[in-house]
Every structure is written in C-alpha cells, then in structure tokens.
Amino acid sequence: MGGFMIFDGAKWISNGVREYVGTVEGVYANPAPYFRKEFKVGRGLVKATLYATAKGVYEAYINDSYVADHLFTPGFTNYGKVIQYQTYDVTDLVSKGRNILGAVVAEGWYAGQLAFKKEQYFGGWPICLLMKLVLEYKNGNVEEIVTDSSFITSTGRILASSLLDGEVVDNRLPESFEMFSRRLDTDGWENATEEGADFSLLVPDTAEPVRFRHRLKGTFIGRDKGDIYDFGQNAAGVLFLNVKADEDTKITLRHGEMMDGGKLYTANLRSAKCEDIFYCRGGRQILTPTFTFHGFRYAEVIVEDGEADVMDVFMNVCHNDLARTGTFDCSHELINKIYTNTLWGQRSNFISVPTDCPQRDERLGWTGDAQIFSATAMYNADCKAFFARYMRDLRLDQREDGAVTDIVPDLKGLTGAGTAAWGDAVCVIPYNHYMMYGDISILEDNIEAMKRWVGYLKTHSNGLIRPAEGYGDWLSVGEETDKGVLATAYFAHSARLTAKCLEALGEDGSEYERLYEDIRTAFIREFTDENGVIKSDTQTCYLLALAFGLCEDEYLCAEHLVRTLERQDGKLTTGFVGVRELLPMLCRYGRADMAYSLITETRYPSWGFSIENGATTIWERWNSYTPENGFGDVGMNSFNHYSLGSCVEWMYAYMLGITPLEAGFKRVRIAPVTDPMHRVHYAAGSYDSENGRIDVDWTDEDGFITLNVTKPSEMEAVFAIKGEILKVSVDGEAATLSMVPHGTDISILYRIN
Q1: β partners of residue 698
Q2: Given Cys at both, which of 15, 32, 305, 423 links 153, Cβ 3.0 to 4.6 Å?
Q3: Are residues 282 and 194 part of one domain?
Q4: Which residue among 275, 581, 620, 649 is the active-site one?
Q5: Would you call 362 a catalytic residue per the annotation?
Q6: Among this protein's residues, is 620 annotated catalytic?
Q7: Are residues 337 and 402 in the same domain?
Q8: Does a structural domain hold residue 447?
Q9: Coil, helix or strand for 450?
Q10: For residue 734, what is the domain's CATH number?
C-alpha cells in the first residue's frame, strides 16, 4: 500500500523551529525535538499497528517503551526523491486506558552536515515527524491516532546531534523513554506545527534494519587527557558506559581507529569531530548517544568539572542486521584473519547503504566500492533486500543522459557521474544479485537503467574507445593503468552483462552482445600490440582483459600477467578495481601457486602486511600505515574500508570452489583450487544459498586431496576435479563421479598432478 493511503489523515509535524540556534560544544545542530500525544484504548483491542517516518531520523515510543530496536530510521536515502516508512506491530505495548504515542527526531542525513564539505544536501529545519497508529478492535471498530497539531512538543536531553561530529547530551534531563511516560509533567510543552500532507515520496522500508549486533568490552591501555580503552576490533558503533558521577560533571568520549604513541590518532577523521559529550546528573547513569555512530577501535574517556567512577566501558557495534550466509576457515591463520577482517569491514560499512568508511567526514555509498565488493558481500551475508534497495536509490539518482552517479544516494555537486567502474555498478550488482539469489525481479527492475548506462557509454566514446578519465585503478601501487584501457574494458563488460541479463529475462540480447564484440575488437586494435602487450603493461590491464574476455590470445595475456608479477618480485600493484580479479585470474590460468603466494604474503604491499601491522579490518590503502613512514596521507586514510577485501570472494569461489552454475544455485559447480605448494593443508566452509546449504571441506596430505561436500539432494552438483580420482562415495556408498549430482553427502579422494 502506498504512503498516501497509509498516512491518510495525518500531517507532517515539526516543533516550528526554522533556524539554527548556534553550535553546542562545537556541534552545529539544534536540540532534538520530542513529540507526544495522549490517547485512550478501549476493551477488546485485537491489534495495534504503528506507521512512522521522519524528515530526519527518529525513535518512536509507546508510553515509555521504544517500539523497536532499529537505529537511524527511516534510513539514508535521497529525501528529495524517496522517504522510507516503517511498520511496527505495537499490540503488546499499548494497554487499556490512557497511553502515550511519541517520538524524538534528530537531523540525521536529512538536515545534518554531511561528507567532507559538511553541507546539508536534502533539507534543513524544520525536521519533521509523520506517524499513524491504527487500533483494531474485536467488534470491528478501527481507531486512528495521527500526527497533527494536537501533538505537543518540547526539547530535552539531546542538545545537539550530528552523524559526523557526535552528540551533546544533558543527562540531568529525563531519559528519552521518560519523556513519554504517562507521569511526565508536560507543562511548558507547546502544540506541534503542521507542515503539510505530501506523502508522494513515501515507500515502505523493505530491507533489514540497522541494529546493535555485538558488544565489545574495553580494556584500559593508558592515559592521555583521559583514560584510553582498546576494544580489540575496529568497527562502527557507539560507547556504552556505566558511570557514577557527581552532579554537573562533564564527560567527553573521543574515538579513533589507531594509537599514535600514547595518544588517540584522529588526524584521519579530517573535519569529523567524532566526540560525544555528556553533562552528568548525580549518581549512577548510562552514557551512550542515540542518533550518531563512530568508526573506532580505541576511545578516550575525559572527565572534567567533577568526579566520576567509570565502572563499565563497552562498544555497541551497529550494522544492518543481515543474516550470515557464508562461513570459511582454513589451516593458514593469515588467510583466516583476512577473512575476518573483511567481515568486520562489511559490518562496519553496511549501515543503511554500503558506505566507503564509517569514521571520517565521508561515509558515502560509493558505487565503485559497492560493485567491486558486491559478490563477496553476498557470499558473506544475505544482501538480497539490502542491494535491491540500494539499486532502487541508484536508479532514482541516475542522470537523464544515463550517467550513473559516483555515490548513491547522490549528494548533488559533491562528486560526479559517468565514471568507469563506478557507474558500472548498475550492471554488475544486479547481475551478481541474480546469480546469487535467482530473483528475476532484480533484472526486471534494473534492465532499463542498464541499457541507459550502456547507451551513455556508447555516446561518450570515440570509435567505442572510452576517454581516459575518472578514478582509474584507485590506489594502485607503483603502476598506473591507463584510464582509457580501464574505461573501455568496463564498457565492454557492462555491454555483455546487459546482454546476459536480457537473455535471462527471455528477451533478445544480441544487440548488446554485438556491441560487446565490437568494443572487444576496438580494444584490441587500440590498446594491444603485436606481442600481446596491452597499453600501460600493468597487472590490472591484463586482469581486466582476461576477466572481461578482451584478449586476442588469452594464454599470452595470462603470460604477460605473470610477467608483471614476476618483475615486482611476486608482489601485487593493483588498486581496488584490479584486485578483485587478481587471485581468480591466476587460478583460472593455472597459476594457483602465485595466488596462494599473494594471499599469504606479508611484505608490502599485501593484505598480510596490514595484518602484521595490527589491522583488524581492511585498510583503504595498502600503506595506510608503515613502520618506516608512519601514517599515510591524512587527507584520505581510512583503516576500515572493505574494497580490498574483495579477495574473500576468491576464498568461497576458488578455495572452497562454490559457484552457481544456474542462478540462485539451482545447480552448483564445485571446483576447489588447492595450494600447489601445500602451504594450506585444509579449508572448510559453507554457503546458505536460496536453494539450500552447501558445505565443503578438503584436506591436502602430500598432494592427496580428500574433498567432502554436503548439499541438498535436489541440487545438482557439477564437479570440476583436476587430478586423478582415486575414490568416490555418495551417501556413504561407493560411486562414480557421474553419480555425484544425485547425492547429498559426497566424498572424493583424488591426487593432484
């Protein structure tokens, strides 16, 4: 049901404030308004349903109970194009007789200062609330309580709230839940201001909410201006402190990803203040903010203007509550650490949208990062609704000429559009989504946007060669891939994906397949010499050519890839565009030895180098920190980016060998690639597909591989075993490989060459 019907009769309401009153403790934000209304419930109530949203972010309450454990609702969208609303079953929260319906609203993404310009992109004050409570009775009667000027409003303990700068809270005032108590004295509250009834942008929220999902205990490690705590893990969340304080004591909570000697390292936060400030009441109390989050591993608790006994210090970790669908473990602890670091990077950056980082003045839904990482993300967790929602917002922001914006939601004027490997998210993410989940609706929803994007690329090309512009192979090391090579390669890739998606929809994709072939011909003619050397001669140019089928001689291309690695003494040079293809292409073309060497490498640059230097998430740069040079450029140096963690897709698809042969894993290919140098002795993991759980484990004993697979009996498995098969059993009975697709528990013993 559309928002207009759902909220019929209601009004957007505000507290009437239209200007900023100034800054509070350096945070430029107005006090958060509270709204409440009393209502009565009669006998025979069967069901109570609350519909709610805000221009801002909100928490809704029935009496003194929060209606859900959701965070930052209604979520990060382009509020000028779409606003999500939430639906809550609140039957258990209302009681016969007198009740209170209420909410507290903060600026959030709608009116808050966002990104590195710290500007408002979607709106300003007034921030607004919209709610309807529907009461259904046994006798068939229905009552509705809607937001209008009969609601009363006041301000309270949240003096200022900013996603980037943090929150200022006066704990001497009532807790938020106490503001909706039936016993609260509301003298001095004023009637709310009605702000219209335009519900045309409202859509239901269909993805999993952001919640607190983990709690990490802090360990005291030293003192600067205050006590410093280490939570052992870089993540996104907020501090949760149990303190006993004197009246009027001021406690400041500072956050950082790294330590710089004995001090919290905060230079990489740029203009984001990332501090929460509390004015304490006397006695025991909890200190934790409501409408902000920070990216950090370390925190400092500074006590001023009084005394405080800090009894417990925790970090509450938040992210979209996506069910884990993948598991992985192997005998090499460095690989395991890369895997868990990537998991934490995904958690930290899946907060309403797939962001680049959770700590500094950015936290944006960069399309390039999202497409590179999307397959890894979908193996790790159930991202079906999450990415469908992101693609909806991408389509809304797509320009009239077909260009896809660099970030989604788009902050108009902050970044650009039409960028190679970024805009291609419109083709890559739906295709990956379809293959992983088998849901044809993702293609139905996005196919026209895909066509428009490919049309934009064709229009903005010269002889099907794309201009050498954009971000290129972002943050590569020592080698720079020609941007025209990269852009043209992605043009071909998007054309072919569009053809494949049209065919999946039962439509004719031949136009786009022909376009792909024409781009391929132009690519080879323009960029490849008679020896198969591609312009710029980097690892990434060969990786993209191999992955996207743009080589005249693919095996010669693979030889050039190996050559570019050998001239770097076996070390990578790829940025985050090329790195996704690095390990897969080496395995595909017979150099699994090099792939395993790279994933176990600890020299700079490598995944292992960051772990050797204390990383608990994936770094933005290969050299975000080095012992020789210290911290990287503070202008752009996040210690919690997921992009380079795209290697985890390889762990599922190659180490375990689990890939879909048919969309949604109706048919699965099992083709584990073991380590030819026997540095990894076993690997085990699983994937909970749309058609059932697939478990794989293998052990390597001097080249004799025992592979065990469990799958749903109705799921056909196609095994690609390289080596001499010595023994096969299906459901415990001796069998041949041809009988395997019909089994549930499969064991294969083979000897690799």
Answers
A1: 683, 707
A2: 15
A3: no
A4: 620
A5: yes
A6: yes
A7: yes
A8: yes
A9: helix
A10: 2.60.420.10
